[in-house]
Specification:
By secondary structure, the protein is mostly helical. It contains 15 helices and two strands. It is flat and about 60 Å long.
Length: 326
């Protein structure tokens, strides 16, 4: 079957898993071709981009309309580029750094992962054997690694290149919000599975509504350190299969991009990360509302008890009056 015929079968619900697998095999080389410009510039992210392309395929199947006269691969290429740019915008590395700096950063990250509590800046400098200037340079480099410029050129075939801003598109708002029916407590199950440091940062950021600056003062570390921990935690949540399912289930799949521009979609972050953050933001509001409801229930129950006692007393008084009359 052609790509278009397979898509139609999938949309009709016919042998979905098998047809999706067949469709993937048929377009796999095409996907690698679309990702080729990214492979050279973002080697470390390439495997993740291939994985993102699978979700792009699912979104393309969902939204494809054959009567528009467009080949499926043409439509699919849009989704692949969107997914790739969204992922790189959130997680990609732009700056090329020296080997010694990369080694130092690796030691820094290994140190953070090996400790139960958050070490202070001074403790980190002592462990790494560096001074304050070298430490600040390392943190600045990490920050720059996490930043992607929209003017960044991605090299393509035949010495051609494209701006990321050209792929992203215009800046209209993305109309997307969470429904009131979310299972708000589920996301916290996965937060509890994070290590103590990252869990604490997520709780203080999204449950207690604290700024990174405030948390950094509490922990005795720089704001960049807190930003790193928060980003790592969200990335871990993003990779949870169950969180991916929730993102899809509650309308945070990438098909939401149809209601706005690709640029707006990218600025919101990855679809799975958005559902994680939104769950975290709404969870506290949900808990507060439930507490209010419980308080009202207790008050109503107290009023009923008081009213029942009063009614019983009045009935007893009326009986006495009637007996006295007779």
């Amino acid at each position: 079957m052609t790509n278009e015929e397979l898509v139609k079968e999938i949309q009709l619900g016919h042998d979905v898993q098998s047809n999706i697998a067949t469709l993937w095999e048929q377009v796999e080389k095409f996907i690698y071709m679309i990702l080729l410009p990214f492979k050279e510039n973002y080697k470390q992210e390439y495997e993740d981009l291939v994985q993102e392309s699978y979700f792009a395929l699912l979104d393309a199947v969902k939204g494809y309309e054959a009567d528009k006269g467009c080949k499926f691969t043409t439509y699919l290429s849009y989704w692949i580029k969107q997914k790739a740019i969204s992922y790189i915008h959130t997680y990609g590395r732009v700056k090329r750094i020296s080997e010694y700096m990369q080694a130092r950063i690796n030691k820094y990250k290994a140190l953070l992962s090996s400790t139960e509590t958050v070490p202070t800046d001074r403790e980190i400098m002592m462990k790494l054997g560096i001074d304050k200037r070298q430490y600040d340079t390392m943190l600045r480099t990490i920050h720059e690694m996490d930043t992607i410029s929209l003017d960044k050129k991605i090299d393509g075939k035949d010495n051609s290149s494209m701006d990321i801003s050209e792929i992203i598109g215009d800046g209209k708002d993305l109309a997307a919000d969470v429904t009131d029916s979310l299972t708000l407590s589920q996301i916290w199950w996965y937060v509890d599975e994070l290590d103590e440091r990252r869990k604490q940062v997520i709780i203080e950021r999204y449950k207690e509504n604290k700024t990174q600056e405030t948390i950094s003062h509490e922990f005795g570390v720089s704001r960049n350190r807190i930003a790193d921990l928060e980003k790592e935690a969200l990335k871990q949540l993003r990779r949870k299969d169950r969180v991916k399912y929730l993102a899809k289930e509650f309308g945070y799949d990438c098909s939401l991009a149809y209601s706005g521009s690709v640029g707006a979609f990218n600025r919101k972050g990855s679809c799975v990360e958005r559902v994680a953050i939104k769950h975290l933001e709404l969870s506290e509001r949900y808990n507060k509302a439930m507490n209010k409801i419980n308080e009202l229930d207790s008050l109503i129950e107290s009023m009923r008890t008081w009213d029942g006692t009063r009614t019983y007393q009045n009935d007893s008084f009326n009986d006495s009056e009637q007996k006295g009359t007779y």
